[in-house]
Amino acid sequence: MSLHVAVATRSFRRYSTYTAATLAGIFTNCVFGVINALVLVAVWEQNPDAGGYDVRDAVTYVWLGQAMIMVIALWGGGSPTDLATRIKTGDVALDFYRPVGLLGWYLAADLGRAAFHLLSRALVPTVVGALLFDLRWPGGPWPAVAVAVSVVLALLVSFAIRFLVAMTTFWVLDDQGTAILASTAAVFFSGLTVPLVLFPGWFGTLARALPWASYVQAPADLWLGKHHGWGVVGTLGLQALWAGVLLGACAGLLRLAERKVVVQGG
Amino acid sequence: MAELLQPVVRYGQIARMWVRASRAYPVSWAMLVVGGFLINIIEFVGIWILFQNVDDLGGFTLRQVAFLYGGTGVAFALADLVAGRAERLGQMIRLGKLDQMMVRPVPLLVQVCADEFALRRVSRVAQAAVVLAWGCGAVDWTAPRLLLTVLMVASATVIFVAVFVALACVQFWTIDAAEVANAFTYGGVTVTAYPLSIFPGELVKALTFVVPLAFVNWYPSLYVLGEPDPLGYPGWTQWLSPAVAVLFTAVAAVVWRAGVRSYRSTGS
Predict the structure, then answer these.
(1) Cβ of A23 and B177 within 8 Å?
(2) SS3 for B57?
(3) Rounded CA separation B80/B60 (Å)
(4) Does the keyword Repeat belong to this entry (chain A) (predicted)?
């Protein structure tokens, strides 16, 4: 356990080194926050209760989306990228020798990264958004706790998907292709640009059941107080279910990959 | 003339080499092509979903928005194909690649832009072109409108190439601030995909006079689509895009030269 804490803290420090990159990223998040918020303001001006949101909900949603991008590495990246590189170069054979589980090691590293991005790339744009627009805030301590749990679950789901993508390198020898498909799905089905509540009919229902709904839609709905009582439990439960299934898949696939590496002689 | 074409020929040679190299991983390459298609499709599907909730955006129909989206999309994708790699300048500096490039008898900018040339990006051009073609159905065609549409896409491509190059130069001074460029490149293509009439007037003025990205497609499209200018600028502003493209190119050239001149290598 203390080992994983050590990995996480060092990963936190690794990302905190690049001040200029962090500031540049915050600037970009804010620019996109303003653009997307203004687009949704135009939509809600014409249709004031689209998707059961009001304009204040919609604008808040946009800024929450910008805050989540780096915390969960929505576009891809984070510690699984290091794994993909090590698979490509063959260094991963050394990782298999170590008396530490690969999955736990990389998860710890990604948690450290996410913690740094939460304090920088999530917090600062949200403050900027609050200065520029009239945002909605969680209605009390319990909704805030639910949001916190939801963000952690979102990170676990996204880590598992990114880890699975990185592992495809074992078979395809290059993860760029799967990575771009995965980020396309993530951008669309997370509701980053268009909230999933605007998706029409059965397509909307489907989108909200998929794992990517954990990324932005689920924590945002909890933040905006769209769920009550069992609805909160249900939202968090679905996220937890996806996290469990996907992390299980990671562990399973890792076993297969390990056998493959050993058979090929590393 | 042959001398002028030299950089183009060199670019072609480097690009061909990278295209051959990318065939080493065929499965991944195929997924990248499909992914390129999908990324653009979902962007436009997103706009289509917005239109399931409203009848028009800023007085523009879905088909007219498709014209705006397609116009800027084709230009951006072409610029990204040709010069998008410039955003890796910081990485080239860190790895010492730029130092190697400087001693080769090929213009530096050509090498930077052609580095790891990815033909798969053509799929994004194609996708945006399909949306543009559909959007063209919203136009009541005349000869001047056709001419302006062609001028618009050509100028916008030049503008985006200049934006890619000029902003990559930021990395000559601060190696890891590469992401600032995204706010202007990807931010620029996102903002121009919508009718600017949905944005506050101050923002449209900033996009006209400060960072004149409104000339990428907004002003010429007003003429082509026959829509009134919400800010009421004179009609000739709708024909200014080529001049703005020249201006962007000049700025990019100056910034690039300044950047290269101040470059002192990483020292390692």
Answers:
(1) yes
(2) strand
(3) 27
(4) no
pLDDT in tens, B189-213: 999 999 999 999 999 999 999 999 9
B27–A176 C-beta distance less than 8 A? no
CA-CA distance, B192 to A55, in Å (whole number)?
Answer: 22
Token pair 């302006």 in the structure block, residue: B148
Taking the CA atoms of B71, B74, B75 and B76 in sequence, report the sign of the dihedral they define.
positive
- As a whole number of Å, the end-to-end CA separation of chain B is 40
The interface predicted TM-score of the complex, written ipTM, equals 0.90
The pTM (predicted TM-score) of the whole model is 0.91
- Chain B contact present for A23, CB below 8 A: yes
pLDDT tens digits along A221-261? 999 999 999 999 999 999 999 999 999 999 999 999 888 77
Quote the distance between the C-alpha of residue B180 and its chain's center: 16
CA pair distance A73, A25, nearest whole angstrom: 13
Distance from CA of A180 to the nearest CA of B (A): 6
Helices marked H in B23-61: 26-51
Q: Are the Cβ atoms of B190 and A32 closer than 8 angstroms?
A: yes
Using CA atoms, how far apart are residues A242 and A223, in angstroms rounded to an integer?
20
Distance CA A159, CA B180 (A): 26
CA distance A141 to chain B (A): 33
Q: How far apart are CA B12 and CA B235, in angstroms?
A: 40
Distance separating alpha carbons of residues A94 and A114, to the nearest angstrom? 26
User: Are the C-beta atoms of residues A135 and A129 closer than 8 Å to each other?
Assistant: yes
